[in-house]
Amino acid sequence: MAWFQRTLELPPHRRGFHLITTQVVEALDELKQVEIGWLHVFIQHTSASVSINENADPDVATDLETAFNEIAREDFDYVHTIEGPDDMPAHVKCSTIGSSVMIPVRAGRLMLGTWQGIYLCEHRNRASGRKLVLTLQGETGS
Length: 142
Prior knowledge:
Layout: E1 2-10, E2 16-19, H1 21-26, E3 34-43, E4 48-54, H2 58-71, H3 87-97, E5 100-106, E6 109-110, E7 116-122, E8 130-140
């Protein structure tokens, strides 16, 4: 059993849902060595999240952003407001979507479905870059 871990630093993204599958795969040269295993993707922030969703139609990202803005509205009467009107809704969205995903690995590839991709879900209007911890565990080829 082999373990590999990397930190992936993403540049600032505008608010919304952004496909990052390619960046995740490119950050892990060791992925090619794993015959069977898991990749855990964890975001080290509380105002952004990670998700797996459709990667083919860009309207999906737009609709997800619109729906989550309705679920966690900025005009709600939040108590935690010191960091601006988009901060507490960002925390609600992060808690709803989650801070990590697990993806099976087989024969050096992520076993995502045909229409699946990994998303950075940026919930702040003016966020800084984001850090992801990528932990790969699995059996490597001989």
